[in-house]
């Protein structure tokens, strides 16, 4: 049976993953992997800004332990904990933590691991900075010759009349930073100046952020997950179409409530022309942002069905969201296989690094 579409709820309630055979790795690989986490917030609904990927660490421990000999969960509470991790020098750190708040300031995990020659998953601080501010990401796309909607940023009072708006209505307005469609709702599409003012003010009041204002793209919406084979730098693009029902205004908007309540549906992209367009754009965007290991590129069509870069997530969720569903629909890959592939890619980067280092030493 060909899987054509799937929702997160179906995955969670029906177990729509391929069966994972027990004892498939009778001889475990002699590698040490530490799953690094930070203490969870008391309010589990709060957005933990220093965590890019929320992990089910116990499940990942169970999966990785099937293949690798030494796997453990490490909670970092202090800078001394981090120093001890560096001294242990595991073969791989599997983590969704971006940075730590310590008394002496912020330390970015993946940059710290690079300094200590420890392999990790996902991207470093430079790449995460490139995608965090959506206007910076779009400028990088423009410089790389990748289509993205015309845009500007603003906050209340900055644009005081319709003549000051640099691009034509209709416009799409969302917070300049943040993920999960926070700040996106039925009022995000605006056709006049009063609606523009109201939405910009709403984002400032609720999120204390500047607004990104774009030319509204009325076509279909897609998300393309990227898996990088670090042994050869090849990128695998896995497009999916995201389908939502029309709202009260007749628009299909992937807003916060739809994502939170899992009311969208994702569909495999069967049209080869569109598949190739989405794949090519996402690979170029991932490369332009200096992404590493894995990521997700969001794309939307205009009224002529021309794909445009919307935004990127270089630390995509590793539960049962778009990244996993992309793997399932495109590669028929189970959740366990996805986690193992990400870990194996991380370890591959270490093998490549040592191979290069040994070559340089022998040359001298």
- Which fold does the CATH topology of the domain at 29-128 and 336-363 refer to? Rossmann fold
**What is the C-level CATH assignment of the domain at 29-128 and 336-363?**
Alpha Beta
Question: Which range best describes the helical content: under 10%, 10-25%, 25-40%, 40-55%, 55-70% or over 70%?
Answer: 25-40%
Which structural class fits the helix and strand makeup?
Answer: alpha+beta
Widest sheet: strand ordering: 1-14-13-12-15-16
Low-pLDDT stretches are: 9-23, 351-364
Overall pLDDT, averaged? 88
| Discrete helix count | 11
Describe the structure.
This protein has helices spanning 8-14, 57-67, 79-88, 109-115, 125-132, 134-143, 193-207, 256-260, 272-288, 322-331, 335-363, and strands at residues 5-6, 29-37, 68-75, 92-95, 99-102, 105-108, 119-120, 151-154, 171-175, 189-190, 211-215, 221-229, 234-243, 265-268, 294-301, 307-313. It is of the alpha+beta class and 364 residues long. Among the domains are: 29-128 and 336-363, Rossmann fold, CATH 3.40.50; 150-216, ATP-grasp fold, A domain (Dna Ligase, domain 1). A six-stranded antiparallel sheet has the order 1-14-13-12-15-16. A hairpin with a 2-residue loop joins strand 5 and strand 6. Helix 2 packs across helix 11 (335-363) and helix 5 crosses helix 6 (134-143). It is globular. 38% of the residues are buried.
